[in-house]
Amino acid sequence: MEKKALNWSELGFSYRKTDFRFSAIHSDGKWSDGELVESEIIPVHEGAPALHYAQQCFEGLKAQTAPDGRVLLFRPDLNSERMKQAAGRLLMPEVPRELFLRGVEEAVRANYAWIPPHGSGASLYIRPMLIGVGENLGLRPARQFEFRVFVSPVGPYYSSNGMAVISLAVSELDRAAPHGTGNYKVGANYAGGLLATREAQAQGANEALFLDAAERRYIDEAGSANIVIAMTGNRFVTPRSDAVLPSVTRRSLMVLAEDRLQLKTETRPIDLRAELQDFEEVAACGTAAVLSPVGRIWFDNAWHSFHDEGRSVGPVMQELYDLLVGIQRGELDDPYGWTHEVSL
Ligand code: PLP
Ligand code: COI
Question: Which atom of ligand 2 approaches the CA of 157 most closely?
Answer without folding.
Answer: 9
